[in-house]
Amino acid sequence: MPKVRPYSFTERAAVDEPQADVVDVNDLSSYKILVIENVAEMRTTMGMMLGQFGATQVEYAHRSGEALGQLRRYSYDIILCAFDLGTGFDGLYLFEEARRHGLLKASCVFIVLTAERQSTKVIGAAELAPDAIILKPFTGETLYTRILRALRKKHRFKPIDDACIAHDFLRAIQLCDRAASEGGEDALEFVRMKVHLMLRVGDWKGTRDLARELLGTVDFPWAKMALGKALYQLKEYDEAQHIFRQVIAEHELIMDAYDGLAKTQAAKHEVEAAKQTLQDACRRSPYVVGRMRELGEVAVIAGDLPLAEQTLAETVRLARFSFWPQISDYAALGEVQLQRGDVGAARKTADSIRKDFRTSNDRVLAEVLESNVALKLGDKVKARSILENALHSAAQGIEPPSSTLGLALAQTCLSHNRVTEAEELTRAVLKNRHDDPKLAALVTRLYKTQGREDEALRLIEATAADIVTLNNEAVALAQAGNLKAAAERFLAAGKEMPNNLQMLLNTVNALLALVNQEGWHATYMQHAGDLLSRINTLDPTSGRGLQLAEIYRKTKRRYGMQ
To answer: In 3D, which of 160, 159, 157 has the Cα closest to residue 109?
Structure first.
């Protein structure tokens, strides 16, 4: 029986020849199409145009939020999106959000439809790379011709789609290599897709080297962006910052460059510079949730509370509209509102939490906010009573409190001088994200506001040391040849820290090593599969998670289980 080779970015096994797909791109009846247009008459007209050329699977959306919801549920082959969606959220924003969250397959054709007066803005931002931009008004023949041109170009991406859908990103990269080596007018698109996938699996060094090689020949903005992102992940902040500045100077509408620059500035503790960069980006493109969130967080660190409240409130609004609300946004907003003494606004935020997180344990954060409001108003008895209820409710949850809720409870406990409970809550949060510098900084700021910064540092160091010790014990067992004991040690630790990404990754690695050495074990493989699903939920972009998923698939194939 062949031994499973570890996932390697450099030693790639031969890839099977993909099955040739016989598809008539001229026949639109075989494609699932989404039309996004806020004007009802235009939706009707486009439906009739598409129907004339055989389209039968046409669906419609009239708002960005509705469209994103449909993209989360279904996989479309063709998307026709108006630039002006009538809500301030334009078609390029929608395209960027869909790409950011992995809602578009590689072969999906995305076409932006725009009036001539808006075309300069759209084309200027063409680094976002929709497959075509069609100026209104247009005829059915024009629409059909541009769709066919894009479909023919994208058809070769279908095998890559299939590999990505199966989360077999190594195969997808190999297919990109093969297609690029065959040449043709779209060879460069396959190289670009390869770079995108290398970033997706966290091959930072490989991305850096390939991007530098490409840039030695031609000045591609997307290759510069990939180089900057890889350098940032490799903590080569000075060079990354230089690259992002260069992209902005040459292409001021590539908004991703502003995000990258701000991250490098924040990593170098250049808080005011990061704030300025994000403000500039938000002025140019104000409807991206992640960017607005980053600005809010940086404004809090910089002590700019008016800006923090404004941007965090906008983040909450945008995230709700875009189907990606995060409880941390509400927590940060409520805290800023209380710091500014606006208890009325904090109460409204609590009401929003109850409405937007009805089925989540995070709704307990509303009670925490209410307790802090009562304390702010001087009603200590009421504040304590509400806190007791919040602690009880959080303890009744199926899973431990999220990091946001746990720290909010810890902060409120500190306000009531309930130090032991605060420590327990903080330790629980740190256990699940012990190697996250942003969380460590958040814990430090939280304790500092209570005059307890030294206690925060002690907790952070002690928790990290405990996890390192536990990990070393399991590794020592593995090195001594006792893989089963190592795997069991990791599984037991996982019950105490179910959201610790590093521990989950180590556990899956131990389980797969055990099965590949000692033979098939259905229970261990079930554990590995469940943990990989959890890893994907916690961090869909985890390069090591994707690598382990590849080993998991190879292991199942090795034993004839797939």
So the answer is: 157
